[in-house]
Design a protein that fits this description.
The chain is an alpha+beta fold. It is built from 7 helices and 9 strands. Helix 5 crosses helix 7. The protein folds into 2 domains: 3-142, no CATH class; 153-221. It holds the Pfam family BAT. Keywords: Transcription, Transcription regulation. Residues 19-134 form the Bacterioopsin transcriptional activator GAF and HTH associated domain.
């Protein structure tokens, strides 16, 4: 059974325009993604920023960037065509050589969010080993198995969906609120810290799906490998 994993890592750990990725108030979306093969590159980036002079300066000084040109400019967004240095994007390629296909990648506030599709669960486990050997500090946000069954709306896990429904039914989203976070946690028999984190992840999933369309239909949450 195939699986999709969403991971985060600092921009400094991805040799992919790392200087511009670390600029404040800059958002980068990868338009064209690499496949598993090590010869592929990520040539197109949408960059949103207030100061494109700083962006261009950072790209010119970035050792991972061989060259670039602007092929589209729209208000606060530009589409850049990139040429990477030989060792650029090695972290992305490592994920690919482990058997995965990078489907989406985005950087916000100096952190990359990367979605990788693994056709086989064994490949997913291998990715953990490869990342550990390469000292890549991955933070796993979610893992979903591909399924023919209807998934949760917008990629929510069962727990997240049930929590949102309970929060809505008990008036957590009413103005003013009818139930506090602590009281709702008691009703759900979980700690308020766990509830807060579950709601945060659910909200993030919904916003990401709405803005970026990253969620695949028919996805259900899968357990992480037992050695993690």
């Amino acid at each position: 059974m195939g699986a999709i994993i969403n991971v985060r890592l600092p921009a400094a750990e991805v040799e992919l325009g790392e200087r511009v990725a670390s600029l404040p108030e800059v958002v980068i979306d990868v338009e064209q993604l690499a496949s598993r093969t090590s010869d592929d590159v990520l040539p197109l980036l949408w960059i949103r920023a207030d100061d494109f002079a700083a962006v261009d300066e950072a790209l010119e000084a970035d050792p991972t960037v061989e060259g670039f040109d602007v092929i589209g400019s729209f208000d606060r967004r530009r589409l850049y065509r990139m040429e990477w240095a030989d060792e650029a994007a090695s972290t992305i390629r490592i994920l690919g050589t482990a058997g995965g296909y990078v489907r989406n990648a985005r950087v916000v506030d100096g952190k990359w969010s990367i979605e990788v599709l693994f056709p086989d669960r064994d490949d997913l486990s291998r990715m953990y080993d490869v990342a550990n050997e390469a000292d890549i500090p991955l933070t796993v946000d979610s893992i979903y198995e591909l399924s023919d069954e209807d998934g949760r709306p917008n990629g929510l896990t069962t727990e997240q969906q049930e929590t949102l429904v309970a929060a809505f039914e008990h008036g957590y989203y009413d103005v003013p609120r009818e139930v506090s976070l602590v009281d709702l946690a008691e009703k759900l028999d979980i700690s308020h810290q766990a509830l807060s984190e579950r709601l945060r992840r659910a909200h993030e999933t919904l916003v990401d799906a709405s803005v970026n369309g990253h969620v695949m239909d028919g996805a259900t949450e899968a357990p992480r490998p037992t050695d993690q």
